[in-house]
Write a structure and sequence with these properties.
Helix 1 packs across helix 6 and helix 9 packs parallel to helix 10. The chain contains ten helices and 15 strands. The chain is of the alpha/beta class. The protein binds threonylcarbamoyladenylate and magnesium ion.
Amino acid sequence: MDYGNTDLLSPDLTGIARAAQLLAEGQLVGLPTETVYGLAGDATSDMACARIFEAKGRPRFNPLIVHLPSIEAAERIAILTGTAHDLAAAFWPGPLTMVLPLRNGHGLSPLVTAGLDTVAVRLPAHPLMRGVMEAFGRPIAAPSANPSGRISPTTAEHVLNGLGGRIAAVLDGGPCGVGLESTILAPADAGTRLLREGGLPREAIEPLTGPLVTDTTPGKVQAPGQLSSHYAPRALVRLNSPLTDLNAIRVGFGPCNADLTLSASGDLIEAAANLFSTLHAADDLARRKHAAEIHIAPIPDKGLGRAINDRLTRAAAPR
Ligand code: TXA
Ligand code: MG
C-alpha cells in the first residue's frame, strides 16, 4: 500500500519527539489515545486547525476537542466549576470530554471552538499521547483520525488507510484499549447534560452528577457524533439480526455462528474495544465477497452497550 509521504513513527522516545516536532511545525500527526486515534494539530495555530478540517473533509461548524496533559493546563483555557472539578478528579485522565466555558486569554484558534464560547476539553490517559502532550507543551486539537462520516480508527493502519498521504505521520501505538470515543458531558451544578455516549458509561457518572440530561433535540446538533449517518461502512448495516442470512457478512456477539464477532464470550468491554476494527474488517470482507449487507447480532443496551448501540445505529442510518 502506498501512503504517500506519511511516516509511521515508532512507539518510543524518538517517535514522541518527532511527533512533537511536526506539531510545532504546524503539521498534522495521527496519535493514539486510549479511545481512538486522533488527528492532532496545534490548537493555537489557525493554519494547523484549518488543515485538520481539510484533511478530514469535516464540516466547519463542528468544533474540535482540545487535549491537555493536566487539570492545571485545562484551567488555563477553560473554567471548571464544582461539578466539573468533581468529574475531573474522578475520571481524568480517561475517556471523558467536558464542554466548559472558555477562559479569557485562552490562546486557542477560533477554528477549534467554531466560534462558540465553550470548549471541549479532555485529558487522555494513553502514555504515548501523554508523552507528546508534554513534549509539545501546547494544547492539541484532535478529532478522530478518520475521513468525516467514516468509521473511527483504532489502529495506526486504519489511520493510514483513511488519511495516508494527507498527514505528515502516524505514531504507532497498536490497538486502542477502550475502542469507543470519549463520553462528552456539559457539566452544570443544576444538571449535567450528556452530549455523546462513549467510553465512560453513564452508570459510572451518575453517582457524582445525579441523573444525566440527554440532549438530542433534532436540528440542534451539538456533536457530530449526533449526526445520524456517521461511523458508516460502505456496505448497508442491519442491527438486531438473527444472523440467518448467509449472503450477508454476519457479526456476532456471544455464542453464535458468524463471520466475525465483537466478543465471543459476550463481554461488552471487549466488544467496545473491537467495535471499529470489526466494522472495518466486515466492510473489507463485504467488498471481497461482493456482499451488499453487514448483519449484526443484538447487543444488550446497558453499560458500554449503550455507546456501542449508539455507534451501530448511526452506522445503520439511511444515507
Ligand atoms: O475519544 C475522543 O473523544 C476522540 C479522541 C481522539 O480524543 N476524539 C473525538 O473527536 O472523538 P471528534 O472531533 O470526532 O468529536 C468531538 C466532539 C464532536 O462531536 C464535537 O461536536 C464535540 O466534540 N464538541 C467539541 N467542542 C464542542 C463544544 N464547544 N460544544 C459541544 N460539543 C463540542
Ligand atoms: Mg469522530
